[in-house]
C-alpha cells in the first residue's frame, strides 16, 4: 500500500467528490496497440505508452488513476500466452501509475490515488458456468495480491455482470489484501445486469460483503446510470461510484463515435452528484477532454456530496434477481421449512443421491404458496454434508430466485452453501455457545450473510424471557465486535413443545417483546415446534403463530403449504396495520373455496408443481435447469417406451419455448435461460444417437465468430448453446477471427447464417468487412450481428440482415430465416 493509510484513503473517497480517469483501451489503440493484442502486455513491452495515458489524465485533472490491468487475471492472460507473467504485469502496471501519480499531483487533494483495476474473467461461476467459487476466488486473489505488491491505493472490481462472480472477487480481495475495495457492476437500459440483478439487489449484496464503495460503470451512459445510483443510495450508506460511457456508440464515416462530447458529458455532473455519486469518472468513449471538462465543472460548482443513508436499516436478504427487506409491507415473512429431510425418506434419498429433484419440486411449491425465504437442510446420517449442501444450493438457484436460509449445525456445510449462493443468504444458525460463536460468526461476516441468533448457550435453553434476552444480547455484542452490523441479525427466542412444557409456552412471546424493546432486533420462530407430539398440529401452530405475531414476531419458519398459516398471516397483517387498506386480507379470503371442505386444502400450485409422469418431470427439469438430473429422466422415459423423437418434439422443445417466452416477457432472466438450455442440450445429446440418421440432421448451419481484434465471447457462447438446442448446427470459430477465415468457413460448411459478435467499439468496423467480403464471394448466407455496442441502426448502415439485441432476439432471427425445418418436418 502507499504511504496513504487505509483510513485516509477511505476518508478521501467517501467524503469528497473525487474525479477518476477515462478510458484506457482506446487511448492505447490510438497510440499504436494492434487490435486483438493484449493491452496489458504494454505494461512490460511499451511502458511509455501506458505512462503517457496516465499523464494525459492527470494533466486533465484526474484525482484517481486506474491501472492498465482490466484483463490481467489468469484466464484473460492465458488467451495471449501471458499467464506466467501475471505477477510481473500487475506489479509493473501499479508501479507505472504510481510513478506518474507521484510526479503529477492531483488537482485538489495532492497526489492522485492509484486504483488497481480487476475485470471479469470471461467465465461464469456455478451454477451458470463450470467455474467453481473456489476457482474464481483464487483467480481474483492472485491478481489482488499482485496489485497490492505493486503499490496501488485501493482496488476497483469493475464491469461485472454476474453477481456470483463479483461476490467471489470482493470476498477474495478482502481476504488477501488490506486494501479498500470498490465494487462496480454494469447494467442494461432496463436497470438490470445481463444476468438479471437489479441495482437494489446489487447494493444489498455488495454492501453486506463489506465493499468499501459500490457503484456502476460502463453501461449506456450517465443518464442511464443515474437511476441505478439513486436506487443504490436508497438502501446503502456506502459511498457510491459512477463511471459511465459517453453514451452508446455509433459508426459515422467508417469510424466509431460516441454521442456525448466533453461538454455534454460534464453537463451531467450535477445529476450524478445529486444521485449520490462521489467517485465520478469516464468509461468507454471518454478521454482526457471529458475529464478536463468534468474538472472544470467541479471547480465551478464545488458540489458537496449528497448526505448518505443514516439511521437503522432493516434486515435484508437477496437472491440473484430480487431482494427482501423486513419492513411492515413484507411482514411477517414466512420461511419455508419443507426442504428438510428429517423424517422424510424420499427427500433424504434425493439428497443422498445428489439429484435434488424433490428439492426443486418442494422449492417451486413453497414459492408458489407465498414463502419469502426457503430454509435448506441436507442433514442425512452418513451424508457428505458440505458437498450435499453445495449441490442443493446450486440446484435451487435454477428453480427459484428466493433468498435461501442455509441450515446446518456443521460449519463446513454452512460455508459450502454460502460459497454456492449468489446472493445474501440467511444462516441458520448461531447460538450463544462459545464454540458455535467462534465457528459461525466469521462465516457470516466473510460471506456477507444475515444470521439467526438462537437464545441458547452452554447452559442450554433458558426458561425465562429475561434469560433469553441476555443470550441474545451476548450474541449481538460478539457480532458487533467482529464487524457484523446489527441489521444482519434476527433472533429466535426458541419454542418449547406445549405437550411437555406448556408452562413455558408464553415465555417465548414475552422474550420477543423484550428483545425488540431492549435490543431493537427482529425475531423469528420455528413455530411448529410448539405442537411436536400432538395431534392436529396445524391447529396449535396457527394459534401460536397468531399469539407471537401479536407480540411483534417478524418471521416464522413454517409450512407455507398449510392454509391455516396463511389464515393467521393475512388476518394478523390486517390487525397489526401492515395491511393498511385491508386489500391483502380481502384478496386472500376472496380466493378461498366456499364452502370449505374439512382439513387442509393444498394450494393448486402445490399439486401442479409435482408432476407424476416422466414427461412432466422432464419438463420441470428443463425449466429448472436440472442439467445433472435430466439424463436419468430421459433414460427412464425411454425405458418406459417413449419415442425419442416425440420426447424432443413434444416435451423438450416446448419446455425450452416456455422458458424462452418467459425470458422475452421479462419474467425469466438470463441465468434461468442458460441453465434450461444446458439441460436441454444434455437431454438432446443423450437422445441423438437413438434417432434415425435421416432424423438427426440439423435445422440449418450457423457460423458464429467474434470479429478480428475482439476477444470477448460470453454473449456469443450463450447464443451458440441456445441455437444448438433449437436444432441448428453451430460452427463456432471463436474470438478475434479474421474476415477471410469467416468467409472460408461459411463456404466450406454451406452455412445459411453468419453470426458476428463485437463488444469493443474499435472492432465494430470489422463487421462491415465481413459483410462486404461475403457479398463479394457471392455467399447467400444471411449475416446477423450482435454485441453490447451494436444497434439496429448500425446493422442497417453496414448492410447486415439483422441485429440481435440479446441472445433471445438472436435466436428468433435465426428461426425466422430458417422457419420451417423442425425435426419432424425433416423426416
Kindly describe this structure.
The chain is 47% helix and 14% strand. The chain is an alpha/beta fold and 827 residues long. The strands form six sheets. Strands 1-12-9-8-7-6-5-2 form an eight-stranded parallel β-sheet, sandwiched between helices. Strand 19, helix 19 and strand 20 (489-492) form a beta-alpha-beta unit. Helix 7 crosses helix 8 (163-176), helix 23 runs antiparallel to helix 24 and helix 26 packs antiparallel against helix 27 (630-639). The longest helix is centred in the last third of the chain and has 21 residues, at 644-664. It is globular, with a radius of gyration of 28 Å. Residues 593-611 and 821-827 have low confidence and may be disordered.
Number of helices: 35
Helix content: 40-55%
Task: Tell me the overall shape.
Answer: globular
Distance between the termini: 68 Å
The value of Rg in angstroms is 28 Å
Fraction in beta strands? 5-15%
Look at the structure and give the mean pLDDT: 89
Record the strand order, biggest sheet: 1-12-9-8-7-6-5-2
Query: What is the subunit organization of this protein?
Result: single chain
List low-pLDDT spans.
593-611, 821-827
Strand segment count: 27
Query: Tell me about the biggest sheet?
Result: 8 strands, parallel
Look at the helices and sheets and give the structural class: alpha/beta
Amino acid at each position: 500500500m502507499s504511504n496513504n493509510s487505509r483510513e485516509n484513503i477511505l476518508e478521501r473517497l467517501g467524503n469528497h467528490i473525487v474525479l477518476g480517469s477515462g478510458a484506457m483501451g482506446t487511448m492505447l489503440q490510438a497510440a499504436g496497440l494492434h487490435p486483438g493484442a493484449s493491452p496489458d502486455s504494454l505494461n512490460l513491452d511499451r511502458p511509455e505508452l501506458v505512462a503517457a495515458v496516465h499523464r494525459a489524465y492527470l494533466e486533465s485533472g484526474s484525482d484517481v488513476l486506474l491501472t492498465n490491468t482490466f484483463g490481467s487475471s489468469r484466464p484473460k492472460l492465458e488467451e495471449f500466452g501471458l499467464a506466467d507473467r501475471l505477477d510481473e504485469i500487475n506489479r509493473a502496471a501499479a508501479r507505472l501509475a504510481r510513478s506518474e501519480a507521484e510526479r503529477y499531483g492531483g488537482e485538489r487533494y495532492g497526489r492522485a490515488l492509484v486504483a488497481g483495476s480487476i475485470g471479469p474473467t470471461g467465465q461464469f461461476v456455478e451454477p451458470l458456468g463450470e467455474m467453481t467459487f473456489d476457482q474464481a476466488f483464487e483467480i481474483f486473489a492472485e491478481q489482488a495480491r499482485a496489485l497490492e505488491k505493486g503499490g496501488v491505493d485501493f482496488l476497483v472490481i469493475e464491469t461485472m455482470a454476474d453477481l456470483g462472480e463479483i461476490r467471489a472477487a470482493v470476498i477474495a480481495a478482502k481476504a488477501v489484501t488490506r486494501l479498500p475495495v470498490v465494487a462496480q457492476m454494469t447494467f442494461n437500459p432496463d436497470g438490470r445486469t445481463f444476468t438479471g440483478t437489479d441495482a437494489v439487489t446489487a447494493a444489498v449484496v455488495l454492501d453486506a460483503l463489506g465493499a468499501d464503495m459500490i457503484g456502476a460503470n460502463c453501461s449506456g451512459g450517465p443518464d442511464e446510470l443515474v437511476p441505478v445510483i439513486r436506487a443504490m443510495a436508497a438502501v446503502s450508506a456506502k459511498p457510491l461510484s459512477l463511471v459511465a460511457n459517453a453514451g452508446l456508440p455509433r459508426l459515422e464515416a467508417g469510424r466509431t463515435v460516441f454521442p456525448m462530447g466533453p461538454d455534454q458529458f460534464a453537463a451531467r455532473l450535477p445529476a450524478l452528484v445529486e444521485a449520490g455519486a462521489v467517485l465520478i469518472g469516464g468509461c468507454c468513449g471518454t478521454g482526457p477532454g471529458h475529464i478536463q471538462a468534468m474538472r472544470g465543472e467541479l471547480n465551478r460548482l464545488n458540489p458537496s456530496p449528497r448526505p448518505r443513508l443514516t439511521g437503522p436499516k432493516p434486515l435484508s436478504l437477496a437472491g440473484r434477481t430480487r431482494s427482501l427487506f423486513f419492513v411492515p409491507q413484507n411482514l411477517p415473512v414466512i420461511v419455508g421449512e419443507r426442504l428438510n429431510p428429517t423424517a422424510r425418506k424420499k427427500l433424504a434419498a434425493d439428497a443422498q443421491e445428489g439429484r435434488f429433484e424433490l428439492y426443486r419440486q418442494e422449492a417451486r411449491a413453497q414459492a408458489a404458496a407465498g414463502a419469502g425465504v426457503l430454509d435448506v437442510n441436507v442433514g442425512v446420517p452418513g451424508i457428505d454434508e458440505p458437498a450435499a449442501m453445495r449441490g442443493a444450493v446450486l440446484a435451487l438457484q435454477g428453480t427459484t430466485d428466493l433468498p435461501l436460509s442455509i441450515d446446518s449445525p456443521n460449519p463446513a456445510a454452512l460455508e459450502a452453501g454460502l460459497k454456492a449462493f449468489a446472493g445474501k443468504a440467511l444462516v441458520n444458525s448461531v447460538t450463544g455457545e462459545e464454540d458455535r460463536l467462534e465457528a459461525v460468526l466469521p462465516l457470516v461476516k466473510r460471506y456477507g450473510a444475515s444470521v439467526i441468533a438462537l437464545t441458547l448457550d452452554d447452559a442450554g435453553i433458558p426458561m425465562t424471557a429475561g434469560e433469553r434476552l441476555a443470550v441474545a444480547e451476548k450474541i449481538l455484542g460478539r457480532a458487533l465486535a467482529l464487524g457484523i452490523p446489527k441489521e444482519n441479525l434476527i433472533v429466535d427466542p426458541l419454542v418449547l413443545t406445549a405437550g411437555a412444557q406448556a408452562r413455558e409456552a408464553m415465555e417465548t412471546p414475552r422474550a420477543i417483546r423484550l428483545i425488540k424493546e431492549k435490543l431493537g432486533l427482529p425475531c423469528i420462530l420455528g413455530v411448529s415446534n410448539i405442537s411436536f407430539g400432538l395431534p392436529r398440529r396445524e391447529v396449535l401452530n396457527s394459534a401460536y403463530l397468531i399469539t407471537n405475531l401479536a407480540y411483534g414476531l417478524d418471521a416464522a419458519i413454517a409450512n407455507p403449504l398449510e392454509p391455516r398459516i396463511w389464515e393467521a398471516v393475512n388476518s394478523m397483517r390486517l390487525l397489526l396495520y401492515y395491511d393498511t387498506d385491508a386489500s391483502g386480507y380481502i384478496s386472500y379470503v376472496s380466493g378461498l373455496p366456499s364452502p370449505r371442505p374439512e382439513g387442509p386444502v393444498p394450494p393448486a400450485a402445490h399439486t401442479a408443481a409435482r408432476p407424476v409422469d416422466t414427461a412432466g418431470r422432464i419438463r420441470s427439469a428443463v425449466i429448472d435447469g436440472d442439467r445433472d438430473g435430466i439424463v436419468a429422466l430421459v433414460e427412464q422415459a425411454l425405458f418406459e417406451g417413449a419415442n425419442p423423437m416425440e420426447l424432443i418434439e413434444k416435451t423438450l422443445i416446448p419446455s425450452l419455448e416456455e422458458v424462452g417466452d418467459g425470458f422475452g416477457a421479462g419474467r425469466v432472466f438470463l441465468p434461468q435461460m442458460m441453465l434450461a438450455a444446458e439441460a436441454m442440450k444434455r437431454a438432446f445429446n443423450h437422445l441423438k444417437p437413438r434417432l434415425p440418421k435421416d432424423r438427426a440432421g440439423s435445422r440449418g448451419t450457423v457460423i458464429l465468430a467474434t470479429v478480428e481484434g475482439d476477444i470477448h465471447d460470453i454473449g456469443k457462447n450463450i447464443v451458440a448453446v441456445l441455437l444448438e438446442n433449437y436444432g441448428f448446427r453451430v460452427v463456432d470459430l471463436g474470438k478475434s477471427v479474421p474476415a477471410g477465415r469467416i468467409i472460408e468457413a461459411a463456404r466450406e460448411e454451406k452455412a445459411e447464417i453468419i453470426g458476428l459478435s463485437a463488444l469493443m467499439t474499435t472492432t465494430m468496423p470489422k463487421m462491415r468487412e465481413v459483410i462486404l467480403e461475403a457479398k463479394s464471394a457471392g455467399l447467400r448466407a444471411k449475416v446477423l450481428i450482435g454485441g453490447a455496442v451494436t444497434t439496429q441502426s448500425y446493422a442497417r448502415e453496414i448492410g447486415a440482415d439483422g441485429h440481435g439485441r440479446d441472445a433471445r432476439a438472436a435466436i428468433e432471427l435465426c428461426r425466422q430465416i430458417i422457419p420451417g425445418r423442425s425435426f419432424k418436418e425433416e423426416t
